[in-house]
Fold:
Amino acid sequence: MPPLPNSDAPQPIRDVLDSIETQFQLTDERLRDITAHFVKMYQVGLQHGHEPMAMIPTFVTGVPDGTETGTFMAVDLGGTNFRVCEVQLEGNHKFSLKQKKFKVTDELKTGPAVDLFGERAIRCRVTLVGY
Structure:
């Protein structure tokens, strides 16, 4: 591994930086263990709704090949933002995209689900058909 740019730093600082660097070094075996743990957590998260890695299953059964046509909507609700996209697939690997991004407030994150999803529905309507 090439030396860090701290080679001119005093020895105590180099020792601290070296200590921090070693904490980020993983053996292949440790990386495999971490990967196996994530896979297990994903599997548990798909089976039970109140797990640290809870997930909603997807029912996507194929992947696009570029010949698709039509108008489609995509939504993404993350921890900070909500995105609404209108995608016009024109075939021949061509598309156009309209999208809007909205902040998800702390009030919506911690309040009743009906408020969160009601607001998401309004944002979808505003994006796709206007006010």
Notes: Residues 28-47 form the longest helix (20 residues). Strands lie at 69-77, 81-91, 94-103. The CA atoms of residues 41 and 51 lie 8 Å apart. Helices lie at 11-23, 28-47, 106-110, 113-129.
